[in-house]
Amino acid sequence: MILTKDNLKLGLLLGLVGPLLGLVAVYFARFSSFGFLEFLDNFIHENKLITSIGSMSLLANAVLFTLYVNTNRDKTARGIFIVTLVYGIGILVLKIFN
């Protein structure tokens, strides 16, 4: 199975997809009464939501990272970590310039 490989490219891909799935999960769990585009607009423009929703969506990467580190697939974990840093910096920049 592809998820059992130890590959930097796989880690980068999982790191990109994880927070997006986390964002969708947060939407369905807490904000499903809004339209998805309205939810994204509120997420981008409200500082409190940037912090909380951004953190919750990055939690998906923390779970993936822990899973891959504990199974000694360090190259994949490294890819997940790199993308998590990029997302985190992006969220920080968005919060500062909002």
Task: Characterise this structure.
The protein has 98 residues and is mostly helical. The chain has one domain. The chain is 82% helix and 0% strand. The protein contains four helices and no strands. The chain has helices spanning 8-30, 36-45, 47-70, 74-96. α1 packs across α4 (74-96). It is elongated, with a radius of gyration of 14 Å. The N and C termini lie far apart (42 Å). The mean pLDDT is 92.
Structural key phrases:
4 helices, 98 residues, mainly alpha, 82% helix, 0% strand
Q: What are the SSEs and their pairings?
A:
Blueprint (H helix, E strand, L loop, with lengths): L7 H23 L5 H10 L1 H24 L3 H23 L2
Helix pairs in contact: 1-3, 1-4, 2-3, 3-4
